[in-house]
Design goal:
single chain, mainly alpha
Length: 353
């Protein structure tokens, strides 16, 4: 979730859309229980609504990762540049995250009455134990990616796209196609396949999103017309919705993760479409949401957890969704804007450039 000093206006829309979709994802999980017990008892249009919202929510992380690869992989770092990147990006992000891990520890004690344990807090800060906040999986992932990002970028400057096709194809088959095939197998009561091939050097699932962001900048989809991109994006989107409807319909709970080939395909198409927008003047809404996107990310789950504790868990899910989404987004947004104005430390607390 980064911003580059060389302003690219359409990337503001990408980041703004991404942070909204992340909140939609978590609000959907809070309002529509994505489990067999709930889905087996609800009507079809509620299922369709839940899976459509959840799929839109899953676009956020791909957009953030594409944007990072787009901005940061198309350059050479070298020795000096690598140290600058580690100091300016990795170290600053690490410090910001450490502060928020402490905040979350005391917040959960206040909200849920969980015990304050210094040993647990230290394990959280050293990434030896999960922080009990659903969005925090992203943080150690992005920190790990930042450690090696300069080396990947330097390597990419000397590699022709033609030679990248083979390893990318292998990664896509084993890490993105196979998981979807396994969902189908499980839905039919058959044994799922297991990936035994080590692809760690390829960066795994999230590394491929980074690489795809870089390749999108290099123009791998430039030959496609906008209507083809729209068709591909919509097809990928409803491919994700459809596989959920199919799997739950067969009695197998499947909550989409980022290793879904339809999600990868559809999000790439949408990202390319946004990149073709000809924006001459920035809009303050996109600008503000983009600027505070990481701060909103850090804050939104605390707001949502408070709502889940203090707001009645009854009533129409559609009304509850609108309420939770609007309150979570606006409260997180305004709080981030307020924190950013704290003299000296505000921008560091939210990792704002």
């Amino acid at each position: 979730m980064m911003k580059n000093s060389n302003r690219v206006l359409w990337l503001d829309i990408v980041r703004a859309t991404a942070i909204i979709s992340v909140i939609v994802c978590h609000v959907t999980e809070a309002v529509y229980p994505l489990n067999m017990e709930f889905m087996s008892q609800t009507n079809w249009h509620t299922k369709l609504m839940a899976f459509t919202l959840f799929t839109f929510g899953r676009l956020g992380v791909p957009f953030f990762l594409f944007a990072t690869g787009y901005l940061l992989l198309d350059r050479s770092y070298g020795r000096a540049g690598t140290w600058r990147f580690w100091k300016k990006n990795l170290l600053r992000l690490f410090i910001t995250v450490e502060v928020w891990i402490v905040v979350y520890h005391f917040f959960l004690h206040w909200l849920k009455g969980s015990e304050i344990r210094i040993t647990v807090l230290f394990k959280n800060m050293l990434f030896l134990k999960n922080v009990e906040m659903s969005h925090m999986w992203y943080i150690p992932m992005i920190l790990g990616m930042y450690i090696f990002l300069p080396f990947v970028a330097d390597s990419l400057q000397h590699i022709d796209f033609e030679i990248l096709k083979l390893p990318i194809s292998i990664v896509c088959v084993y890490l993105f196609v196979l998981p979807v095939m396994n969902v189908v197998c499980l839905a039919f009561g058959r044994n799922a396949g297991t990936n035994l091939l080590s692809l760690d050097y390829g960066g795994g699932i999230y590394g491929l999103y980074f690489i795809m962001g870089y390749l999108l900048k290099k123009g791998i989809l430039k030959r496609f017309h906008i209507w083809q991109l729209a068709f591909g994006g919509i097809s990928g989107f409803f491919g994700v919705v459809g596989i959920q409807l199919f799997s739950y319909g067969r009695g197998n709970a499947y909550n989409v993760w980022y290793n879904n080939i339809f999600l990868l395909f559809g999000s790439m198409m949408f990202f390319e479409m946004i990149s073709r927008l000809r924006i001459q003047k920035n809009c303050w809404i996109w600008d503000s949401l983009s600027k505070y996107s990481f701060g909103i990310y850090l804050l939104h789950n605390m707001v949502l957890l408070i709502l889940r504790v203090y707001v009645a868990q009854t009533g129409k899910p559609e009304i509850k969704f609108i309420l939770f989404l609007s309150v979570t987004l606006l409260t997180s947004w305004l709080t981030a804007a307020g924190i950013s104005r704290i003299p000296g430390i505000g921008k560091q607390l939210l990792y704002i450039k």
